[in-house]
Write a structure and sequence with these properties.
By secondary structure, the chain is an alpha/beta fold. It is built from 12 helices and 13 strands. The structure holds 2-acetamido-2-deoxy-beta-D-glucopyranose (4 copies). This is Trichome birefringence-like N-terminal domain-containing protein.
């Protein structure tokens, strides 16, 4: 696997191979002991025998189980200053702000370990992790910052490599940053030139120019700066209130020229993903690790966000309700979640990005949005309460980073 090879090369270069094995092997044994305490169900056969790196586990498939203890000891609370006001459900007195923390994600064939902040800081010291994407990735970034700050409060606030915000945990020299970008690619307002042009001759008067092959300035330097990147893009491609298909359509450009005939947004997304993955592959540090996060679902009921839709649930949805909300054939209000994923999967299939598949687990959590306490005129059924489900997304990130490290060590040991 090129990713592991890249990592291995990085480790060899730093001459840290032996200490890493000494450090990681006992932990690996420990992990094995923790993660397989009971017999596996027949539906989840034990893989990873015969010298494979580790028991494979699909963390993405499972269910939320009530776990009262999870809510009694908060991972962080409303005093974490990085929480954006509208997402601070505890401070804003959301009715179920605490109750929504009493659920634990239980994958079908294994356990998803809870991120241990001190261990995370130790494992990732002297490195840098960047989140690149829209406000949902900021939500995830804030969750990680707050969890780690609880373990090590000495931070320097700054903006690495053009980031919107970032922190270095001084004792560990670990940097976390958030790079804000809605579409990943550059865009700006466009209006018809009096001198005419291909778009003008088709009758376009104004819209947004979207350069599918140019990364947004906000993160163009991120791949050469960070060791780990977590990307997302999604709902902005399905945002007719901003990119109105008639009044202000998305107009796609490639190599600086308009694409003719003009593309609809889903085709524009495909092209943008293709180009951005090529860009990241070229620009990323040789031993860097790239994740793409799948789409975060919204939970508007009774109308879309601008039609009085709300999310007043006190409990996660059942599996049947989830399908009612999100199955493509139902064409519901929140349909873009699985549509976006369809496009992401096509782009990711042949790529070397790792996928953080948070969609399904999040589809259940209609109870965990700021709702009426988001401080907006309309309900916020899109972002997530903090603390909240994005803490679990970070558990998934930590588990994936750990697995990479383990498979790297094993690869070095046995090949
Ligand atoms: C994410 O996981 C769910 C549950 O296993 C699965 O149904 C879905 O196809 C996965 N999506 C992607 C984009 O991998
Ligand atoms: C961190 O990196 C610096 C510079 O590469 C190196 O001198 C130092 O030993 C590293 N510290 C740790 C704890 O790995
Ligand atoms: C801190 O970590 C960065 C990598 O993220 C490294 O370049 C730098 O040398 C480190 N600084 C120290 C003082 O170890
Ligand atoms: C889905 O619903 C939207 C609006 O609610 C409509 O414009 C679109 O045509 C529908 N698509 C299908 C395939 O039914």
């Amino acid at each position: 696997m090129p990713l592991a090879r890249g990592l291995a090369a990085g480790v060899r270069r730093r001459g840290a191979f032996l200490p890493l094995v000494v450090l990681v092997l006992p932990l690996l044994l420990l992990l094995h002991l923790i993660s397989s305490p009971r017999p596996r169900s027949p539906s989840a056969p034990l893989r990873g025998t015969g010298g494979e790196p580790q028991p494979a586990c699909d963390y993405a498939d499972g269910e939320w189980t009530r776990d009262a203890s999870a809510g009694s000891e908060l991972r962080y609370d409303q005093t974490c200053r990085e929480i954006f006001k509208g997402w601070n459900c505890l401070a804003n007195g959301k009715r179920n702000g605490r109750e929504l923390l009493r659920w634990r994600w239980k994958p079908a064939g294994c356990e998803l370990p809870r991120l241990d902040p001190l261990r995370f800081l130790e494992l990732h010291k002297n490195s840098s992790i960047g989140f690149v994407g829209d406000s949902l990735n900021r939500n995830m970034f804030v969750s990680l910052v707050c969890m780690l700050k609880g373990a090590s409060g000495e931070v320097r606030k700054w903006r690495p490599a053009g980031a919107d915000r970032g922190f270095t945990f001084l004792r560990y020299n670990l940097t976390l940053a958030y790079h804000r970008t809605n579409l990943l690619v550059r865009y700006g307002r466009w209006s018809a030139s009096p001198n005419g042009g291909p778009l003008e001759s088709l009758g376009y008067k104004k819209g947004y120019r979207i350069d599918v092959d140019v990364p947004d300035q906000t993160w163009a330097e991120a791949p050469s700066f960070h060791d780990v990147l977590i990307f997302n893009t999604g709902h902005w491609w399905w945002a007719p209130s901003k990119f109105d298909p008639v009044q202000t359509p998305m107009l796609f450009f490639e190599k600086g020229r308009p694409i003719i005939p003009p593309l609809l947004p889903p085709a524009g997304l495909d092209l943008a993903l293709k180009h951005m993955m090529i860009f990241v592959n070229k620009a990323m540090k040789p031993d860097g690790v790239k994740f793409f996060r799948t789409q975060s679902p919204r939970h508007f009921e009774g109308g879309d966000w601008n039609e009085g839709g709300s999310c007043q649930r006190d409990q996660p949805l059942s599996s049947e309700e989830v399908e009612g909300f999100f199955a493509l054939e139902n064409n519901g209000t929140n349909i873009e979640a699985r549509l976006v994923n369809h496009h992401l999967m096509m782009a990711l299939e042949k790529s070397t990005f790792k996928v953080l598949n948070i969609t399904h687990m999040s589809e259940f959590r209609a109870d965990a949005h700021p709702s009426t306490t988001g401080g907006k005129k309309h309900d916020d059924c899109m972002h997530w309460c903090l603390p909240g489900p994005t803490d679990t997304w970070n558990d998934l990130l930590a588990a994936n980073l750990w697995q990479l490290r383990v498979s790297l060590t094993k690869g070095e040991t046995f090949t």
